[in-house]
């Protein structure tokens, strides 16, 4: 397994993962994410988003060039302040691991890789808006519930 920043060649796989995530939510939570949505059009729209929005850093776990887990990070610059080392806070979103690879610590390893990256980038903290089903996973990975979001001091 390789942990790395996503490459352009991964974009269609990442778009497909988003589609699968929405499919699961529709079944598991009775949502309507995909009602009336053309799959091919969505996949094209998502890959165009990735090409256009370089402010999102997309991290992946891959196995033989198959993306098995992905996480998006948006670094938010902090205004300068005397004697402050941290330059960013980070928003974690679109966390997803393919169903057949879950419960194998792949997401946990990818998140640890992201934390190491953000520490090197002088990031102060990372936050996420977790679903109810993911609270425990985030808690096990050092996120703490503060106010309305979970934070992870780095």
Describe the protein's architecture and organization.
This protein is α+β, with helices and mostly antiparallel strands and 154 residues long. The chain has a single domain (2-153), classed as 3-Layer(aba) Sandwich (Aminopeptidase), CATH 3.40.630.30. The protein is 34% helix and 31% strand. It has four helices and seven strands; from the N terminus they run βααβββαβαββ. It has a seven-stranded mixed sheet. The longest helix is centred in the first third of the chain and has 18 residues, at 11-28. It starts with a strand and ends with a strand. The model has no long low-confidence stretch (mean pLDDT 94).
Sum this structure up briefly.
It is built from 4 helices and 7 strands.
Topology diagram in text:
Elements: E1 2-5, H1 11-28, H2 39-52, E2 56-63, E3 66-77, E4 88-97, H3 106-120, E5 123-128, H4 135-140, E6 144-146, E7 149-153
Parallel strand pairs: 4-5
Antiparallel strand pairs: 1-2, 2-3, 3-4, 5-7, 6-7
Helix pairs in contact: 1-2
């Amino acid at each position: 397994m390789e942990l790395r920043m996503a490459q352009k060649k991964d974009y269609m796989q990442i778009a497909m993962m988003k589609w699968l995530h929405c499919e699961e939510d529709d079944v598991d939570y009775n949502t309507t994410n995909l009602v009336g949505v053309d799959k091919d059009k969505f996949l094209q729209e998502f890959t165009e988003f990735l090409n256009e929005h370089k402010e999102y850093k997309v991290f992946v776990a891959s196995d033989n060039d198959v993306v098995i887990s992905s996480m998006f990070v948006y670094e938010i610059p902090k205004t300068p302040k005397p004697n402050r080392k941290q330059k960013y806070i980070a928003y974690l979103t679109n966390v997803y691991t393919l169903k057949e690879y879950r419960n194998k610590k792949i997401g946990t390893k990818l998140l640890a890789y992201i934390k190491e990256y953000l520490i090197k980038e002088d990031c102060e903290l990372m936050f996420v808006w977790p679903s109810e089903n993911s609270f425990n996973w985030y808690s096990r990975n050092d996120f703490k519930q503060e106010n309305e979001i979970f934070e992870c001091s780095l």
